[in-house]
Give the backbone structure.
Amino acid sequence: MQLMFIVLNKIECLEEILEKLGETNIYGATILESKGMAHSLSEFSDLSFMMSLRMLLDPGHKESRTIFMVINEDQIPTISKIVNEVTGGLDQPDSGIIFTVPVGYTEGFKVD
């Protein structure tokens, strides 16, 4: 089993990603509102002119959604394909990232 994290910067894609996951019988995700460190730092301090300039150039990207779910390893390609198709590709700037970490133990739910 794996714990998959999807940090989605294109939050307008969230609903479609969730619908497509459901169509492939992948359920059981938790979704959190999240914000990148650079954005948070720009709100709390006067780090630099460059940080301020970056925020001016990307004013729409203020928050993200972090989706996490415990999945079987064989589901990774399906989820990755869905996320890449809906977002236009995670290789594009400010679209998001996916990563997994191994899960050694679960309790309270069943992974299909």
